[in-house]
Amino acid sequence: MKLPVFTLCALASTSLLTFADVTVSTLFSDHMVIQRDIAAPVWGQASPGEEVSVRLGGGIATKATTDAKGNWSLKIPAQKANASGQELEIRGKNTVAFKDVLVGDVWVCSGQSNMEWTLGGCNAPDDIKAADFPWLRRIKFNHVSLLKPSMQVPSGGWEACTPQTAGNFTAVGFYFAKRIQKEIGVPIGLLDDNWGGCRIEPWIPTAGFEMEPSLAPMLADLKKRDEASASLPDNAPGDGGQPSTMYNGMLHCVVPFGIKGALWYQGESNGGEGDEYAAKMRALVGGWRKIWNQGDFPFYYVQLANFEKITEDPAGGDGWARHRMAQLQSLSIPNTGMAVIIDVGEGPDIHPKNKFDVGERLAAWALHDTFGKKDVVPSGPLFKEMKIDGNKAEISFNHLGGGLMVGKKEGREPTKADASGKLQRFAIAGEDKKWVWADAVITGDTVVVSSPEVPKPVAVRYAFSMHPAGCNLYNKAGLPASPFRTDNW
Fold first, then answer.
1. Domain-wise residue ranges, the chain
2. Residue 434 has pLDDT above 60, yes or no
3. Residues 22, 91: contact at Cβ < 8 Å?
4. Which pTM value belongs to this model?
5. How many angstroms separate the CA atoms of 25 and 286, rounded?
6. Pairing of strands 473-475, 404-408
7. Which of 362, 391, 393, 390 is nearest to 376 (CA)?
8. Cα–Cα distances in Å, from 424 out to 386, 399, 464, 472?
């Protein structure tokens, strides 16, 4: 059938209008949170050469012109925190508007299943019922691994925290945000961007591998893969275990977005590693910071919990013991903090349900280091140095938190001082490198370690095993000491 001339014209006009429509990254939606106090990036597409303007609320419009491919990006002026919903308007030849947009702090919540673990899986019905927090928002990312970096956002948009939605929030992120919001009083957005069972390598961008000489073989393989996949479609799927594939599919699309910092809970899938995991952490943090180009933003992470069967060998070193040392070593990366959770594990369950203490301990780091609340103790005792005095080893610590104590922790209840308790899980060795369980006593701000079987001690280990049940050194702020070792045997 031959169409009338006016119908053909109408179809042509519709086609042109569709081509001309300004669009914005699907990271932007109703109920979103924009990072405060920075010039916040906004980006999208329109016709080549088209002028695009973006305005938040009653602010001044910021303008940009698209490039030859129709891409545009700009930064809206820095905004103060604002808990009143505003409209974000993007205007070109058409107008796109998002409602109920808040301004506050945005945190990336990444890692594997213990970060993805939802509030609904934590046996915390009362917390869900009370979760009417309109200032707390999140955007959940679907699992996508790609061979090439993609700007397509695998998500259905932002949602506010209510008793109806809270059960699906990352539990660690929820408890972290709840504590921060209580102390700081600004809206918080969570980028719920994680994948159960993942290793660390898929989250590291190429730029991160380039920073770490010890990972050169992995970088070489990555570059060979990139060359081999150059002719493949941009959305070519990658193996989720390969380097950079999760970064490509789930994080690259976020990188221009303004953030306050990152939370990281991962390591179980790399649990057999030691120093090599520390190198990968340096690559991860350094790579993210380089690509984000927002300076050394805060990066707070979780040391692995006690897990599996209790082990009684004083030498330890089994399972995740060396991995935890690599996580402790990663504190040398600037502007990082580590939540120690060696007291919240549940034996055979790799997913501790107590995510409350995990979020609280991450929040303590942020409150102290990021927000300057120096009255908040950020950490339990962290090994500082060892001095040998005759047949005794004297251990000193950072983060004394009002003093050292023998503590007892039960569930989510605050840690209590155990006045009649004795320190457990300290081992000592002499030059023969034979480890025995030690007597350990708190003396002032130190722990004095000894054994009649070791007259000339040279090294001490604490909680250095997969499941060091009974380890009970805390500071008076109620935070546990990290496992440590003074040797490198």
1. 161-370, 383-485
2. yes
3. yes
4. 0.94
5. 25
6. antiparallel
7. 362
8. 18, 20, 12, 6
